[in-house]
Specification:
Elements lengths: L1 H14 L9 H4 L1 H7 L5 H17 L3 H21 L7 H17 L6 H21 L6 H29 L3 H23 L1
Helix pairs in contact: 3-8, 4-5, 4-6, 4-7, 4-8, 4-9, 5-7, 5-8, 6-7, 6-9, 8-9
């Protein structure tokens, strides 16, 4: 019963959407606005936690390389948006990232760390561009630092979730539980696309 309760609580926490919009930098400060931005969109939360889950599944160098590539390339996408670089299909690719990253976890796609970093980096560019497009009146450095930190923390949550599942259900059962979480993420992405 306890394992089921934990899984249900984690599932609900990962699918919950906060009941507030992006914070106004004039009222809350640019850093806090940036910090809150990734966690106010379920698409961002699901994709970023999936990156952490996938990194946990891959293990080894991927544990650092995949999330680091995401954060690094996301900052490049942020700067591209600030420079006025037009990028088509930003929102559709963000939604596709939720499905794709959920699927790589669901399929337990075994790839080298560099390949995982490339996949994560591709989607990260679009997430970063969205952050840059929605900066509003926020200060560049503090807003960027805020959303980079929030992203890294969401990746860490995914890694922690992956390790927690592995410890809770060792061996094959843990792997299946992580794959189910990936499948739920992909399904969540499909629901976002339909909505």
């Amino acid at each position: 019963m306890r394992k089921t309760t934990i899984v249900a609580a984690v599932g609900l926490a990962l699918t919950a959407s906060p009941a507030f919009a992006h914070l106004n930098p004039a009222e809350h400060g640019s850093f806090v606005a940036g910090l809150s931005h990734p966690i106010t969109g379920v698409d961002h939360v699901l994709a970023m936690v999936a990156v952490g889950l996938w990194a946990a599944m891959l293990g080894g160098r991927a544990l650092f390389a995949v999330p680091a590539a995401f954060v690094g390339v996301m900052i490049v996408g942020f700067l591209a948006a600030l420079s006025g670089l037009p990028v088509p299909f930003v929102e559709p690719v963000i939604l596709a990232s939720v499905v794709a990253l959920g699927l790589v976890v669901a399929l337990a796609l075994p790839v080298p760390a560099a390949t995982g970093a490339l996949v994560a980096g591709f989607f990260a560019f679009f997430h970063g561009h969205a952050h840059g497009s929605e900066i509003g009146a926020a200060g560049l450095l503090s807003y960027g630092a805020g959303f980079a930190l929030a992203t890294a923390l969401l990746h860490a949550a995914g890694i922690g979730l992956g390790h927690g599942i592995s410890r809770l259900w060792q061996g094959r059962a843990g792997r299946i539980a992580m794959r189910v979480a990936g499948g739920a993420t992909a399904l969540g992405g499909l629901m976002l696309m339909a909505g």
